[in-house]
UniProtKB/TrEMBL annotation:
GO terms for cellular component: plasma membrane. Residues 1-68, 400-720 are annotated as: Disordered. Residues 437-448, 502-522, 540-640, 650-666 have a biased composition (Basic and acidic residues). It comes from the Bacteria. This is Uncharacterized protein. Residues 400-427, 667-684 have a biased composition (Low complexity). Residues 1-14, 469-485 have a biased composition (Polar residues).
């Protein structure tokens, strides 16, 4: 399990000082986003109904950093009901490294008869173009494996119902090989008002490599209703091994919950993940994955370590995680100089600033900043998801479900009897299907348009007489009127010939009339030109006489202007001398003013140089103060403890494993194959020894004593050193106990096998 949080002091500003002023509380507990992780549910069921109507979804802006990866997408958040607050909280969106070959179908809020109910989202294959709604499957028959695991690197895949031939068929569970950094999510059904949706099994990334999870938020003031408001997540949730210490499951809500859900107040609704899934009464993909990491060198006895840490917080309410980012900050500030164990302090802090995480050089998330253009592109790419959510609401709402029920119950005869096969088929087909966005939908639309065009073309041919003429009525008419049709054709041909002859004659007459009209127009033009010529000559003479008169007048005017200019030359000379003197005086004054201005600017520049030095000193002082404040904030962040599980960096070129399948090994036999150990054999003979052996034989000795990771109240004792000393001193006796238990289990297993062989042989 990777640890993506800060392990060294970093000088990164903390933007959390104004959280409350925005009317937003950043929560360090609440539901995990369902697209990030959700518990396995063998029997689909609807979520509870709440009385209050949920608000409209918030305008959520993706954060300014995103994890590196070709298959990383932003999945928006949604409203969730908080019973303690009696109000809604916003489950922030998530950066998700999508499961290979899968697409997300978002959930929605639906109006029920007595309130509102959240209908969860689900994953489905990219190759699926339509999601079918099926009848609710029978109760699961899964009772756990009936044989031990073939090896340490195997995990159990639970059985499930498969809808085939208009009925449900049970597919037994089996053992399958596990793969590093991959978690198998088994097939299950998702409840909707219209029917159940089958979610096929798929491989998903390990939790630490799924992306970036953000804190839920609670609005103490409804600022999200303000015009132009948008919300941008800024705090992340630890997705390393620490998340599983404070992870709870709430089966009735189909969600994981994280944070402080300890104590009797929550014991009937919130179940600790680490203890609920021990054994096979309840199945969990993470538990199945972690269970096979023991002894493989990756996370030695990881489940035992998680269980130990959970017990520490279950028995000591003082050190439980805070419920908001502000409370977490206050807790760390008030306990920065106390002797709290480093592991406890680390696990107490679930929230982390996105800025700090982005600047953490030890994180393998490799967060990259994104600009406003990419943010806008991401927001526009979410439109198909929003449209798909609306389509689900329209299709799966209570009214649409009533229509499906009528179709499903339509196969009843007059005596009230039903056809079982027809009823099962109608029960599935009458529920309809949900079309998903993708290439198949575009191809179907093109095919539908082509079909519509073909239908219109055929209808037009029928109306125009281009259809089939071999009906009996048309055949009799053709026989009876054959001669009449021939006469009609000859008459039509004669009429066409006559029309052509008349048209040709009219065209010839028109051409002759046009020629005559042209000759008349030419003669008339020549006559007009002859009459205009004398008139033009007289007009030219008059124009020349007028021109000579104008020329004489112009000469007289020029002579008058010349005399005026000679008389004004003397006056102009005097004025010119006056202007030259005035210009010389103005130039001298401007030169003096310019020199004075330059001297004043030089004096001001000298003053500004001193001010610049003072400004630099002030900026340097403020920078030093900001660095000291940042160092104080960073000193409050818990550092990585010595006994923290080792960080395993993920390879970026991993290939997705093959789907789990039943092989020919003895350990992979289904429950109903003879030869497997019966289900009532004690657990230590069924391959479940670690869960049934007492704690001191399970490698969990350090955690069986609550509080062994808490500060030693005796003084300056080192809890970590004491823990290691106790472990080393107890190691020989523990190993001897394990050897004795192993020998006893082996002998008991051989005895049971002999009895079974005798029974089978008999």
């Amino acid at each position: 399990m990777s640890d993506n949080r800060s392990t060294t002091t970093q000088q990164t500003p903390d933007r959390s000082l104004d959280d409350q002023s925005e009317g937003v509380e950043y929560l360090t507990r609440g539901p995990l986003h369902e697209a990030f992780a959700e518990p396995y549910d063998a029997n689909p069921q609807p979520s509870p109904v709440v009385q209050q109507q949920p608000p409209e979804p918030i305008d959520e802006v993706p954060p300014e950093y995103r994890p590196d990866g070709k298959n990383v997408s932003w999945i928006p958040g949604y409203w969730s009901w908080d019973e303690e607050r009696e109000d809604f909280i916003w489950v922030s969106g998530v950066w998700r490294d999508l499961p290979p070959g899968q697409q997300w179908v978002p959930g929605y809020w639906d109006k029920a008869n007595d309130g509102y109910r959240y209908i969860g989202g689900f994953w489905t294959s990219n190759s699926v173009s339509e999601v079918q709604y099926l009848p609710e499957p029978p109760k699961s028959l899964e009772q756990g494996p009936s044989s031990p695991a073939p090896g340490e690197d195997h995990f159990y895949v639970p059985g499930n119902w498969v809808y085939e031939s208009n009925d449900y068929q049970w597919q037994p569970g089996f053992w399958s090989a596990s793969h590093a950094d991959w978690v198998w999510v088994p097939a299950q059904y998702v409840w909707t008002p219209r029917g159940c949706v089958y979610q096929a099994g798929y491989w998903d990334h390990d939790v630490a490599h799924r992306g970036v999870l953000f804190t839920p938020v609670y609005y103490s003031q409804p600022v999200y209703r303000n015009a132009g408001y948008s919300y941008r997540p800024r705090y992340t949730i630890d997705t390393s091994v620490g998340l599983f210490v404070h992870l709870f499951v709430r089966p009735s809500h189909r969600h994981y919950y994280f944070g402080d859900y300890y104590g009797s107040r929550y014991s009937n609704n919130y179940y600790p993940w680490a203890t609920r899934y021990q054994g096979y009464q309840h199945y969990d993909p993470f538990y199945a994955s972690f269970h096979n990491r023991n002894g493989r060198g990756r996370s030695n006895n990881l489940l035992g370590w998680i269980t130990n840490q959970y017990q520490v917080f279950a028995n000591n309410d003082r050190y439980r995680p805070a419920r908001t980012i502000a409370d977490q900050r206050n807790f760390l500030r008030s306990n920065q100089n106390t002797q709290i164990d480093s592991t406890v302090l680390r696990l107490t802090s679930l929230g982390e600033s996105l800025d700090v995480l982005a600047n953490n050089q030890n994180s393998d998330l490799n967060l990259q900043p994104i600009g406003s253009d990419e943010v806008q592109r991401i927001r526009e790419s979410l439109n198909p998801l929003r449209e798909l959510s609306r389509e689900r609401l329209n299709l799966e709402s209570a009214a649409a479900n009533a229509d499906a029920s009528v179709d499903a119950d339509a196969n009843v005869d007059g005596n009230g009897n039903t056809d079982a096969n027809a009823d099962a088929r109608a029960n599935a087909e009458g529920r309809g299907s949900l079309r998903l966005p993708g290439r198949d939908q575009g191809e179907s639309r093109d095919q539908g348009e082509s079909s519509a065009v073909s239908d219109l073309r055929n209808a037009a041919n029928d109306l125009l007489g281009g259809g089939n003429s071999n009906t009996p009525s048309q055949q009799n008419d053709a026989d009876r009127n054959q001669q009449g049709n021939a006469d009609m054709e000859r008459g039509r041909e004669a009429a066409n010939n006559a029309a052509d002859t008349a048209e040709q004659r009219a065209r010839n007459a028109s051409e002759r009339a046009g020629d005559a009209s042209k000759r008349a127009r030419d003669a008339s033009g020549q006559a007009r030109e002859a009459a205009e010529q004398p008139r033009n000559t007289a007009e030219g003479v008059r124009d020349r006489v007028e021109g000579a008169r104008d020329t004489a007048e112009g000469a007289r005017e020029m002579s008058e202007r010349a005399r005026d200019r000679v008389e004004g030359a003397g006056d102009l000379s005097e004025r010119t001398r006056d202007r030259i003197e005035q210009g010389r005086d103005a130039a001298n004054r401007e030169a003096r003013d310019t020199a004075d201005s330059i001297r004043e600017r030089m004096d001001r520049a000298t003053d500004r140089t001193g001010a610049g030095d003072r400004a630099r000193d002030e900026l340097r002082r403020r920078s030093d103060e900001a660095t000291r404040q940042t160092d104080r904030l960073e000193s409050l962040r818990p550092q990585r403890p010595e006994n923290w599980p080792s960080q395993i960096r993920r390879s970026t070129d991993r290939a997705i494993p093959d789907r789990p399948r039943l092989d020919n090994s003895r350990g992979n036999r289904p429950n109903n194959v003879p030869g497997n150990a019966p289900n009532n054999v004690p657990g230590n003979l069924r391959g479940n020894s670690p869960n049934n052996v007492p704690g001191n034989l399970r490698g969990n000795v350090p955690g069986n004593t609550p509080g062994n990771l808490l500060p030693n109240r005796g003084g300056n004792a080192n809890p970590g050193r004491a823990l290691r000393n106790a472990t080393e001193s107890a190691a020989p006796s523990i190993q001897q106990g394990i050897n004795n238990a192993t020998q006893g289990a082996t002998g008991g297993g051989n005895a049971v096998q002999d009895v079974l062989n005798g029974v089978i042989g008999g």
